[in-house]
Hints:
By secondary structure, this protein is α/β, with parallel strands linked by helices. The protein has helices at residues 12-23, 55-61, 64-68, 82-106, 112-121, 123-149, 166-177, 209-226, 228-238, 247-252, 264-273, 301-309, 320-323, 346-355, 387-392, 404-409, 415-423, 432-435, 439-452, 473-500, 507-516, 520-531, 549-556, 561-568, 575-578, and strands at residues 29-32, 37-40, 70-74, 337-340, 366-371, 397-403, 429-430, 463-468, 537-539, 583-584, 596-599.
Amino acid sequence: xSTKRCFLSVPSELRLHIYHYYFQLEGGYVYDAKSDxxxxxxxxxxxFSLMFTCRTIANEAMHLxxxxxxxTFSTLYREDWRNLAGCFNVVSTYYRHLEAxxxxxxxxxxxxxxxxxxxxxxxxxxNGLETVSRNHRLHYADHNRxxxxxxxxxxxxxxxxxxxxxxxxxxxxxxxxxxxxHQCYAGFSRAHRKRDSYSHPSNTSVGSDSLVQxxxxxxxxxxxxxxxxxxxxxxxxxxxxxxxxxxxxxxLHLRFDNWAIPSESDVKNAIKLLDIAEIWxxxxxxxxxxxxxxxxxxxxxxSDEDDGDNGGDNGSxxxxxxxxxxxxxxxxxxxxxxxxxxxxxxxxxxxxxxKRIPGQRIWLKYLxxxxxxxxxxxxHTHARGLAAFAKENPSLQILRRVSLLDCIIGxxxxxxxxxxxxxxxxxxxLEPKWIRLSLSRKIGYWIRDALFVREVGxxxxxxxxxxxxxxxxxxxxxxxxxxxxxDVAWCRAYKLLEARGTxxxxxxxxxxxxxxxxxxxDVEAVDELANRTSGLLSADFNTGxxxxxxxxADQTEHLHGYDWVTKWQLWDGxxxxxxxxxxxxxxxxxxxxxxxxxxxx
Length: 601
């Protein structure tokens, strides 16, 4: 005679094992962008039916789904968020550049007491700021006076900002609002990568980008508190259309967290206040190869138009010559065309999701952030946005997987250039000769900010940054050994020669070193990666071994200035032998996953 047994009569320890095996899935849970929900690793809905059998089982098992499964987030692309992501990248990057410039211009109003308050929190930053500020104001004084009176600048966006910001405005605003220049569009997805601008925050001090950005923001809040009139006066010069009663507060409130995924209304409000509202909608445009150069004026169209604007009609033409031109002069684009797939980082994606489940996220144990492609707004700084979750849940383990090729290096082509390559049936290649001058610094940005998470309350044992090569492990090892470790060795060799007093500078070396030599902080970052001393860093490929800087110093001690720079920069004809060969990036041709969406006409 059979006896019915109730599941709840089974010992609790055994029930726990049953729950564990029921909920634990191979591959864990993966965030699905289309449904905005977690799913199984093969894209199926998660089965929670056991929890609906009775209240007791639900209470006993409610913590297990997130406790026993790894939850993975990848970079987030949504078709309906292309404008949002692209314009957010531009406005946030512009704001950070503007912050840095304001700090340098308002530093003249800092009192010793204010410097003392600032130095208590950011001593390294405070030490050199006064000198950097003074040099900046002197360097751009003539430029800014000329811009204020020259009619040529009147039609340009950003013409009231310091001239140091003009490079950024040219690439990401003026090229957009001026239709004849659209084929020169640099790509909104890449706005945060423009670090060669004199207005970039990294030019104000050394340190991780997170540290520098925090210092700049604190500095401006200090000025706002102690010298609000001077701050407001400077803002009125830049933004004469602002009419609020407290424009300093309005400006400070425009700051976004780097890892934010803001609302459309917030981004539109920011670009309107910062007088760049015309950029909205541009990321949705399709981009073509561009018109072939005319025999009469190859690549001179834009500059001729500018000259015409200055030619005595008081700027009244505004390009009307082009509008009145014959139809035969009109270029009709055809063939392959593209628009960017602009992404938010995996970290930003996870932060947005976890904020929506405050009662459940405390059970999460294993969080994987797969940064498989480049994303907006300095993604290397985003891990710190997880600090609040790590503090409320000390058992949380965070693994940030970062693709060296697709995320850190990324696609460097402008949209029109990508179309030209594909239209001609050429291969898309990653060529080390073009990335070698920035590779060490790009890796350094990620490492320094990974180490910075300790400063915001994420314990070392809870966080790991893993650089990944995927199927290109040998190539990535070669990149680090022959480019990154070489950069470190030459930097150290130069320091040794300077310390010995045997290096003889000339005009070339004085020019090259500040612009091309990696910083000490980059050297320290590479050391951390090679030696794994921090406990935070790992890689799925061999990261190489340091080169002998002392031996290099001895070998090059006889070289003076220009000759030393020639050897260091491989201008002696040895470039092809010294660096790795190019690699064809087949992943960048996969339309469903690469950084650009492509279509035929």
